[in-house]
Amino acid sequence: MSRQGNAAVGDTIEQLRGAYGEFPVVEERTTVPREALVDCLTSASEGRLGGARTLLETDGRTLLVRYRGNPDVWDLPGGGLERHENHEQTAKRHVAEQLGVECALTGAFHARRQTFSIVDDGEGASGLWIHFEAEPLGSDVELDPGDEIVETRWFDAPPDAVAAPIRERLAE
């Protein structure tokens, strides 16, 4: 089962590169207790291991959010996959749910493929987290932040407390 899930992650990367062009994929391995690996394997078999974040840009400005669970860091809207949902659908859904804004995806700039196993370098379950670029639809964007968002702000220049790899993308 884990090899099949890992192959699906590779297929997803290739499909997204076909749609959006090349982007870096960081490989991470995490050793977890057996119970956590069972949860990861279940999530992977249901297509829910992974997620998406979305960098919204318009008029040279970037929208960042601060989440209630981590209010000291500016981040991108996003979150986990739902069953039978692809990364693009996940990105658009989270922007709509968290900000009340519809968006059009215009690119992908980063991916993290994380493999969870119970021993170092062992077989396990892999999930994929994609960072997309997008533009809000419509000319007059009114934000309607969800409960998990403490603050939203359009930035001309990135703030100091921004999560990586967002910092690297905003520095370009």
Task: Give a quick set of tags describing it.
single chain; 172 residues; alpha+beta; 8-stranded mixed sheet; globular
Which structural category fits the helices and strands? alpha+beta
Number of strands: 8
Order of secondary-structure elements: HEHEEEEHEEEH
Radius of gyration: 16 Å
Structure description:
This protein has 172 residues and is α+β, with helices and mostly antiparallel strands. 29% of the residues lie in helices and 38% in strands. The protein contains four helices and eight strands, in the order αβαββββαβββα. Strands 1, 2, 3, 4, 5, 6, 7 and 8 form an eight-stranded mixed sheet that branches. The longest helix has 19 residues. The model has no long low-confidence stretch (mean pLDDT 88).
Short description:
The protein contains four helices and eight strands. With 172 residues, it is an alpha+beta fold. The longest helix is centred in the N-terminal third of the chain and has 19 residues, at 2-20.
Write the layout of secondary structure elements.
Elements (H helix, E strand, L loop, with lengths): L1 H19 L4 E7 L2 H12 L4 E9 L2 E7 L2 E6 L2 E3 L6 H13 L3 E15 L7 E12 L12 E7 L10 H6 L1
Parallel strand pairs: 1-6, 2-7
Antiparallel strand pairs: 2-3, 2-5, 3-4, 3-8, 6-7
